[in-house]
Design a protein that fits this description.
The chain is mainly α. It has helices at residues 5-20, 29-36, 40-52, 77-85, 109-125, 128-138; strands spanning 56-59, 65-68.
Length: 144
């Protein structure tokens, strides 16, 4: 996909947390990695970045794990994507060419500019709460 594995797994893990939040706020990382069939160590690093970004909070101990640091309606997909991908996803050339722009465009520049804006807009108006509700209501999946 357009997003890195790091970002895909981070989004899936956070949506898993959103789905579980009614029953218990803190979920063990091992439980998330098992449920999503994602490497525990890789997921730990991803969730650490989201914690440092202020989106998750962690708690040590037998009933510990990670939880949302803010309300799900306050966090957008764009927030998480920018935390995990950095700001360049919506600025850089789709072909990875330095200096790509309207003066020196790559073959995909014009179309990618339109698509990139549409994608950014969709991510910015989609909250975790809305996605979580849609996932639950429609029985959407987070695993392979």
């Amino acid at each position: 996909g357009i997003l890195s594995k790091r970002c895909e797994y981070g989004l899936r893990a956070v949506l898993f947390l959103v789905a579980q939040r009614e029953r218990r706020p803190y979920i063990a990382i091992r439980e998330i990695s098992d449920a999503l069939d994602v490497s525990f160590h890789f997921l730990t690093k991803i969730l650490q970045a989201l914690t440092e970004g202020g989106f998750l909070t962690s708690y040590r101990g037998p009933s510990g794990g990670v939880a949302l640091a803010r309300e799900a309606h306050e966090i957008t997909v764009l927030d998480l994507v920018e935390c995990l991908e950095g700001p360049d996803l919506f600025r850089s050339c789709v072909l990875g060419l330095d200096g790509c722009g309207s003066r020196k465009p790559c073959p995909l520049h014009a179309e990618w500019t339109v698509q990139r804006k549409a994608l950014r807009d969709m991510f910015s108006r989609t909250s975790l709460d809305a996605l979580g509700k849609k996932t639950a209501a429609d029985g959407l999946r987070l695993t392979q």
